[in-house]
Amino acid sequence: MERQLARRKPGTQILIVENEILLAEDLVLTLQDMGYGACERVSTGEAAVDRVSRGRVDLVLMDIRLDGRMDGIETAERINAMADIPIVYITAFSDETVLERAKKTMPQGYLLKPFRNNQLKAAIEISFYRAERDKRGRNRLKTPEQGAGQNAMTDPVLVLCSHCKRIKNQDDLWQDVEGYIESHLPTACSHSICPACAQAFYPDYGLYE
């Protein structure tokens, strides 16, 4: 991988969970050249869980195929249960079964090998941004008794477009409903169909009968 010099974030703690030793070592050097000075690498899920349990980790770069008893997805599940740490998968797996398993762990990114340095850098920066956004959303949910004195939504009145139902945010920009919810609450949006709409628009499918 080509190396880019951008000295910044020297205190960022990145854990690389990768069983290919040469790739892991190259990742450490690449990340250090990007300015992420504090990088560690382990080759098993067990070692990754142990490292997270022992102290600060700001981001995990997780391969899916690992040495040891746990693969990367199982390891991510264990880490998620212990701490709120953004996880980016770096893997050669792209089949639907693996993707579905990985999605359930709510990763902040999914990079397919081989990848370029600019793709790695973008995935890391976006992960940090999303993690900070989610943190702000959780803070909005705190009750006054928790010391925050904030409501879940900072807008006292939600302004919706009568036609497309987009929401006007605090910056006077129009957001789709999903984007507004995800930027204000620590949650993600999914989609289904209610019984009334199923009966009105898809009567031949027998949904909700």
Task: Walk me through this protein's architecture.
With 209 residues, the protein is an alpha/beta fold. The chain has two domains: 13-136, 3-Layer(aba) Sandwich (Rossmann fold), CATH 3.40.50.2300; 154-190, no CATH class. It contains seven helices and eight strands, in the order E-H-E-H-E-H-E-H-E-H-E-E-E-H-H. Strands 2-1-3-4-5 form a five-stranded parallel beta sheet, with helices on both faces. It has a three-stranded antiparallel beta sheet with strand order 6-7-8. Strand 6 (159-160) and strand 7 form a beta hairpin. The longest helix has 24 residues, at 117-140. The chain is globular. The model is unreliable at 1-8 and 146-152 (pLDDT under 50).
Topology (elements, then pairings):
Blueprint: E1 13-17, H1 21-34, E2 38-42, H2 45-54, E3 59-62, H3 72-82, E4 87-91, H4 96-103, E5 109-112, H5 117-140, E6 159-160, E7 167-168, E8 174-175, H6 177-184, H7 195-201
Parallel strand pairs: 1-2, 1-3, 3-4, 4-5
Antiparallel strand pairs: 6-7, 7-8
Helix pairs in contact: 2-3
